[in-house]
Write a structure and sequence with these properties.
This protein is α/β, with parallel strands linked by helices and about 475 residues long. Among the domains are: about 160 residues, HUPs (Rossmann fold); about 140 residues, DNA Cyclobutane Dipyrimidine Photolyase, subunit A, domain 3, CATH 1.10.579. It contains 21 helices and seven strands. The chain has a seven-stranded mixed beta sheet, with helices on both faces. Helix 1 links the parallel strand 2 and strand 3. Helix 6 runs antiparallel to helix 12 and helix 11 packs antiparallel against helix 13. The radius of gyration is 23 Å and the shape is globular. The N and C termini lie far apart (about 55 Å). The structure holds flavin-adenine dinucleotide. The site of flavin-adenine dinucleotide has 29 residues, from helix 10, helix 13, helix 17 and helix 19. Flavin-adenine dinucleotide binds next to helix 10, helix 13, helix 17 and helix 19.
Length: about 475
């Protein structure tokens, strides 16, 4: 599909049925996962459709409760939506926030629409929303289109099956990387026809309210459970994401390969919360990365494959691209093809078996969830990592691995440790509840890894201990940084 500014790669269009009622009065874009105007192929598609059918476009976001999401997540997301709404106003795009069960409320609004376009979600509840919505839209003869916005290359194009590890998916990705930039539009739209439709459901327009009115409207509509404070370090929104992007490109990238893992330093990009809420697209990050490094997609794919090359420049860019492209796409592959992505049964047989073989091994000690939450275990590194996560909403990547694996030594069964880890990660990390969250937790228990030397409790699942941290990193500096 084409207009003057946007070219949508048709391979990104995932599910589609055409409208059967040509009398539809507008196009609806349901913004769910991709909460951005830029580098958003689904929004581009909706705009093209509105232009081609000469109909107005209405962009909708639905606030609802989702598993494990707490106040911290909502605030971060709302900061992003608030900024986005101001941008839409300038572009004369109508943007409404609704509340309720998404399929229910959307099908009511879309009843008189020609077509509803939406983005892509990989978790069970997101897929269910889209499934139920489709059923309802069929009843009203409204068309439906789903466009891939999150994976850089649509998962089914990368591979028709669940991949075993990064090693098995890497080549499948690198040989198709030219797809990444095909629909990398910068969101320079022409104004679409205005509708001024009268919504028959409760709504708010962030541009017509103060920030505190917007917050009051959202919080009154939702019952949020744990009242966790906002992150002390991260504020939501595209402008913030772009600042983090500039910092990694201008300063940190030159140390990324060698220093990224040092927990006492901050050499990572810190982009994961923004990626998780769709406030920035991985596509955009890669485009900036390739401009900063002066290479094209073909060269980047070669760099990823030769990342052990004896060249600092290649090593740094390739290491970052490995994480953002290969590891992240592996997580999408995992959640797409493994229906048990959120529980112990997702593990490969060797990992399940070895952990269950050691079920009766004596645990090192046992802690209640409360004691863990108070950062009061006997492991100072674990406590420091937990504190970092609880206060800032983002734990250092290397510490996540150590922190996750320690739970195996403290809980009676690996299944219990698995669920506690998911709970902690998804409740406290700003980037939690992401495909990367599920893949990261599963990795601690052997997913996407291979068997290692056999030992108590862990069996042949890779083991990490404090001595390893001490040997490799400046752990006193990390502890001090967390104020312990
Ligand atoms: C137990 C455990 C839990 C995790 N939970 C999450 C989570 O909830 N959400 C989350 O996004 N990531 C999670 N990860 C993966 C990884 O730790 C984070 O993606 C990374 O720390 C995010 O910080 P950053 O953006 O500064 O990373 P950078 O190092 O700057 O990397 C850039 C981007 O690459 C991707 N990336 C980096 N590392 C990984 C990885 N190991 N796997 C997949 N993609 C990666 C992310 O999108 C990240 O934003 C988890 C890992 C483990 C071991």
């Amino acid at each position: 599909m084409k207009n003057e500014e946007a070219v949508i790669d048709n391979q990104r269009v995932r599910v589609q049925f055409p409208p059967r009622n040509p009398q539809g009065k507008y196009i609806v874009y349901w913004m769910q996962q991709a909460q951005r105007a830029d580098y958003n192929p689904a929004l581009d598609y909706a705009i093209c459709l509105a232009q081609q059918s000469n109909l107005p476009l209405v962009v909708l976001f639905v606030f609802t409760t989702v598993p494990d999401a707490v106040m911290r997540h909502y605030l971060f997301m709302m900061e992003g939506l608030w900024e986005l709404a101001q941008g839409f106003k300038q572009k004369k795009i109508e943007f409404y926030c609704l509340t309720g069960d998404p399929p229910q409320v959307l099908s009511e609004v879309a009843r008189h629409a020609l077509e509803l376009v939406t983005d892509m979600g990989y978790l069970d509840y997101q897929r269910k929303w889209r499934r139920v919505l489709q059923e309802k839209l069929r009843e009203t003869d409204t068309g439906y289109t789903e466009v891939e916005t999150e994976a850089l290359i649509p998962v089914e194009i990368v591979s028709p099956k669940e991949e075993f590890s990064a090693a098995t998916i890497r080549k499948k990705i690198t040989r198709q990387m030219d797809m990444i930039t095909l629909s990398a539009n910068k969101g320079t739209y022409t104004v679409v026809k205005q509708s001024e439709i009268k919504l028959q459901v409760p709504f708010c327009q962030p541009t017509k309210q103060s920030w505190s009115e917007f917050c009051a409207w959202v919080f009154e509509s939702l019952n949020l459970g744990i009242c966790l404070e906002a992150s002390s370090c991260y504020k939501g929104g595209r402008s913030q994401a772009l600042k983090h992007l500039q910092t990694i490109l201008n300063e940190r990238i030159k140390l990324y390969a060698t220093q990224r893992n040092e927990p006492s330093l901050n050499i990572q990009s810190n982009l994961s919360p923004y990626l998780h809420f769709g406030q920035i697209a991985a596509m955009e990050i890669i485009q900036h990365l390739s401009e900063a490094g002066g290479f094209n997609m073909l060269q980047l794919s070669q760099m990823i494959e030769q990342k052990k090359a004896n060249d600092d420049f290649i090593q740094n860019y390739a290491a970052f691209a490995e994480e953002l492209i290969v590891r992240r796409e592996l997580s999408f592959n995992f959640c797409h093809y493994n229906s048990n992505y959120d529980n112990f049964n997702c593990l490969p047989n060797w990992a399940k078996q070895t952990l269950l073989n050691h079920l009766n091994d004596k645990r090192e000690t046992q802690y209640s969830l409360d004691r863990s939450l108070q950062c009061a275990t006997d492991d100072p590194y674990w406590n420091a990592a937990q504190k970092e996560m609880m206060e800032t909403g983002k734990m250092h990547n290397y510490m996540r691995m150590y922190w996750g694996k320690r739970l195996l030594a403290w809980f009676d069964s690996p299944e219990e440790a698995y669920q506690v880890l998911l709970y902690l990660n998804n409740t406290y990390e700003l980037d939690g509840r992401d495909p990367n969250a599920y893949a990261g937790v599963a990795w601690c228990f052997g997913k996407h890894d291979r068997p290692w030397q056999n030992r108590p409790i862990y069996g042949s699942v890779r083991y990490m201990n404090a001595a390893g941290l001490n040997r490799k990193f400046n752990m006193p500096a990390y502890i001090k940084k967390q104020g312990l």
